[in-house]
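Q: How do we represent a protein-ligand complex in a form that can be generated token by token?
A: Start from the inputs.
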Amino acid sequence: MATTTLSPFIASTPFLLQPLKVAKPTSHSLPSKPFILCTSQNRPGSSSKKHSTNGGRPTSKNRRRSSYGTSRRSILKKTFNQEQVDFTAPIPDDPIVGIIGGGMSGLICALNLEKRGIKSTVFDTGIHGLGGRMGTRVIEPQQLVFDHAAQFFTVSDARFAEIVNDWREKGLVEEWQGTVGELEAGGQFVPLPSSPPRYIGVNGMRPLADSLLLETSMVNVVRPCWISKLEPFNGMWHLSENGKHCGQFDAIVIAHNGKCANRLLASSGLPLIARQMKRLELSSIWALLAAFEDPLTLPSNMVTPPFEGAFVKGVDSISWMANNSRKLLKSPDNGPYCWTFFSTSAYGKRNKVPQENIPVATAEKVKAGMLAGVEMALGLPEGLLPKPIYTRVQLWGAALPMNSPGIPCIFDPRGRAGICGDWLLGSSLESAALSGIALANQVADYFQGGGARPEEFAVGLHQEFQPLEGHDIGQFPGLDSETQKDGVQNYQLTT
Ligand SMILES: Cc1cc2nc3c(=O)[nH]c(=O)nc-3n(C[C@H](O)[C@H](O)[C@H](O)COP(=O)(O)OP(=O)(O)OC[C@H]3O[C@@H](n4cnc5c(N)ncnc54)[C@H](O)[C@@H]3O)c2cc1C
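Then emit the structure tokens for the protein with flavin-adenine dinucleotide bound:
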């Protein structure tokens, strides 16, 4: 008979499941904190080789019992120290991992779990596709195209180079040949060296994310799906979306961050993971996507051809601008001309609103402020920037990490839960990928050990955070922030 056993501290609370057994703390329990011991001899679906999309639905009997957590939510919210869940059930022969987040880090984690023979299901909120902050927007019927978060990436690690080489072989990635540089307010443009090379998605960033899992056979993707609850029960993690059961898993990966992750972890039974997530500070950045009928007038000191990307300096509302038509469509002579503009993080902070519900007045104000910033950056007289034929503003409320523990991943073996994401190592696509690889290997090593000696597999649960240097849209070799980094290699890709 499967049981969920709680420590004496918790056993006295009124919201317990039945049957209950008071457990003696195990040798690896936290002495000063309450914990939930979660064990199962009779795990639903543990012997099944079938990898179902929902991870195996619970029976009506345990569905009732898995209401664990609902009545306790309000109590736990008020509890400063939530109790630590402690899984002690043996790891099954065929474990499944639930990955919450289908951005670069979550997808790479799934891919690398498969390489180690482990199945997973990736849940992602994306309505238009996977990728998170690797988003590309195509606006029909005008055929406007914008990378609306990550713009390009660099490669400094052999493991990331392998992924990028694979994309190159498939024709999905190419070196960005366009001129990129720094643009001072008033229109002074200084090109940056083309080495280390910058890479772009041939059809934008999103197809790269979509391609990552195409050849996998052990990864399910569930999208759009917003996981709103994690519940440890019967030796497994039960995931649900607004009360709808989404499956049960032997371990979970949190591959997203920000307010959403903090809310999800607040009453999950993972206090150490939750605490690390809460330490993360994130910037906010406004994106303005704008299409113009005619080419923008670029600074007169510009070399020809005109720049395609610029880190903007000395303008409060703009930190980056890129000509997406030239970058992606390579059509210098035909309009419309699609530009992606990003605000500075200071401007994002000052004009922050709920990103899912942007007031019209704020959107208008930000649009005007950012277009004025573009004018200023290009050194155009006031009012001379042409009126765009299409605009869209979007707030990245959890844009980029401002601090980091500087470790590739976080893993709590007692709670069978880990975190991956860009912020663990830095603020770039490369750091997100490396984090996904690291967590996949950590989980696989832990599973291989049968779940024994959990203390040996704990990573990053108490790591201190340091402020992150970098540009408002990330860290890139070749820019000031990166010259301070020791040992950074830059890879020339093979294909
Ligand atoms: C404006 C901007 C510009 C940038 N420019 C660059 C650049 O030029 N070069 C570069 O290298 N990097 C850039 N970055 C950074 C880069 O985009 C990120 O480092 C990287 O994409 C992060 O990947 P991730 O997997 O850690 O997180 P994300 O991409 O954020 O993925 C997390 C995913 O989880 C999903 N999710 C969240 N909550 C849930 C839930 N409860 N249930 C299910 N799914 C959920 C989200 O929808 C998202 O898809 C930029 C970022 C921003 C914001």
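Residues 100-106, 123-126, 132-134, 149-153, 225-227, 255-256, 260, 264, 285, 287, 342, 396, 399-400, 421-422, 427-429, 432, 473-474 surround flavin-adenine dinucleotide (CB under 6 Å). The chain has two domains: 3-127+213-280+404-464, 136-208+283-396.
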